[in-house]
Amino acid sequence: MFSLSLIHFLSLVFLLFYLFYLLQLLLTSTSTKTTKNGHKSYPFIGCFMSFHRNRHRLIHWFTELLSNSPSQTIVLARFGGRKNQMVVTANPENVEHILKTRFENYPKGKPFTDLLGDFLGIGIFNVDGDLWSTQRKLASHEFSAKSLREFVVSVLEDEVTKRLIPLLENAARDNEVVDMQDVLRRLAFDTICKISLGWDPCCLDYTRAVPQLVTAFDTAAGASAMRGTASASWVWKVKRLLNVGRERQLKEAVGVVHRAVDEIIRARRENMDGSDNNRDLLSRFISSGHSDDLMRDMVISFLVAGRDTTSAAMTWLFWLLTRHPSIEKDVLKDVTFHDKLTFEDLKKMDFLKACLCESMRLYPPVVWDSKHAAEADMLPDGTAVYKGNRVMYFPYGMGRMETLWGKDFLEFRPDRWFSEPGEFKMESPYKFPVFQGGPRVCLGKEMAFTQMKYVMASVLSRFELVPVSLEEPVFVPLLTAHMDGGFKVRVHSRSGCCEP
Fold first, then answer.
1. pTM surpassing 0.90?
2. By the number of CB atoms within 10 A of the CB, which of 165, 374, 439, 456 ranks highest?
3. Given pLDDT bands bounded at 50, 70 and 90, which one contains residue 142?
C-alpha cells in the first residue's frame, strides 16, 4: 500500500510533467490568436495564460472585457475546447433568458454544486430539480407568513437596542476605534441565527469568546470560495483526495458546523411542545416533518445567505455616506421615527432603500453567479452556448456598464432610483440582479431590506461614523464580498437623536 508521502511525490511528478507539456505546447504553437475581446487564446489551453495573469484582479479584468464587448458578453475558451468554454454576460436580455425564459436549461449544475457541496450539502442554494422545488415551496410558505415578519422585527429590536447601540455608545464615550465591518458581521450572525435556529451565539457581546461554530463557519465559507478560483476543478479535487491544505481545513470546519447544527436540531426537537412559541425557521421546518439532514443543510444555506450579504451591503453604504455628507443629510431626514422603529416606519424609508440599492449596484455582496447549460442554446445577443458550458452573469460588472447606467455609472447617486421626485422605482432584476430573478429570486429579499433599514436607521439617527483612514477601501470578492482590512471608524454621538 502506498504511503501518503509517496502519493504526494507521484502527484507532484505528474503535475510537473503536465505543466512541462503545456509549456512546450504553448511555446511551439503557431496558432495563438487574440480574441475580439482583447485577450489571447491558445490551442488546447484557451485563455489559461490570460486568466492566470489576471487571477488577482478577475472582477476588474472581466469588467474591462465586458465594457469593450459590443454585446456586453464574452466567451472564454478553457481546457477541453468548446464544451468547456465559459460565457460571461452583463447583458440584461441574456440575464433574463438565463434566469427566467430558459430557466430549466440553466441549472446550477454539478460543477457548481461540487464546489459548495461539502459545505452546503443538499441545501436550497446548492441543488436543482425536485430537491430545489421541494425546499423552495416550503421556504416560500414560511417567508410569506406575517408572523415571521413580526418575529424578524422583534429580533432586530432586541439585538439593536440591547447590544449594538450600547456598544457604539461606549465607543463614542471612550473615543475608541471600532471596526464596523466586524460589528455588522457579528450583528448579522446573531440575527440570522436567532431567526433561523432560534439560537443566540452572542457574537456582538465582545466580552464573550466567539463560539466555535462561528469560526468554523468562516473557515468553511472561505475554503469553499477558494475552490472557485482554481484554474481547473481537478486541482482542488486532488487536494481533497490527499486531505491537504485548505481542503483539510474545509473538512475539519464542515465537521464542526454540522455537529453544532445537528445538536441544535436535536435539542429543538426535544423542547418543542406543539405550541406557537417557537417562531424561528428551524421550528417551522421541524413541524413540516423533513429529515434532520435536509433541515441542517437548509438552515446552513440560510445562514450563508443572511449573514455576510447584509453586513457587506451596510458596510459599504456606511463608507459611501462618509464620502457624501450631503446625501447623508438627506438620509437623516428619511429615518425620523418616534418611540421605536416599526415595520410601517421602515416601509416609508424610500431614500434609505435607494441608497442601499445604489451601494449594492457598485459593491454587490455576491459578485457573480454561475449556471451550467443542460443543452446547447443561443442567447438573445447571438452568443452560442454549448451543452455543459458554464454561463455566468456578473452583477459587479453590470453595475459598471455605461450602457446600463450612463456616463456617471461610477458615481454614487441614489436619485437614479426615483422615476420622479418621491417615487421610488426598483430596477428590473435582470438589470440589477443582486437578488437574482425568475423562479430563483431571493426569498429573503424583503427580510434583508427590513434588517438593513432597521440597522442603518438606528445607527445613523444616533451616531456619526468617521473613518480612521481616508484611503479608498479594497473590495474583496469571495463567496460573499467584503472590505479588505475592515472599516475602522471613530463614533460620535449626534445631538437630538431618536430614542428606541
1. no
2. 456
3. confident
| 78-112 as b/e: b if 16+ CB within 10 A | beeebebbbbbbbbbbbbbbbbbebeebbbbbeeb
Q: Which DSSP category does 464 fall into?
A: E
What does the block give as the cell for 35? 480574441
Scanning 198-244, the segments in alpha helix (DSSP H) are 212-227, 233-242
Range list of β-strands (E), 121-277: 177-179
384-398 pLDDT, tens digit per residue, is: 999 999 999 999 999
Q: 464 pairs with which residues across the strands? A: 492
Beta bridge partners of 490: 177, 466
Q: How many secondary structure helices (H) and strands (E) does the chain include? A: 20, 15
Closest Cα to residue 482, out of 246, 306, 313, 301?
313
Distance from C-alpha of 68 to C-alpha of 53, rounded to nearest angstrom: 19
Q: Phi/psi of residue 475, each to 5°?
A: -85, 120
Quickly tell me which residue has 478577475 as its cell: 58
Let me know the angle formed at the C-alpha of 448 by 273 and 480, rounded to the nearest 5 degrees: 110
Q: Cβ of 18: how many Cβ atoms within 10 Å?
A: 11
Question: What is the grid cell recorded at 46?
Answer: 484557451
Q: Which residues contact 413 (CB under 8 A, 6 or more apart)?
A: 358
| 20 vs 329 pLDDT, higher one | 329
Examine the pLDDT at 96 and tell me if it is beyond 80: yes
Give me the residue label for grid cell 415578519: 149
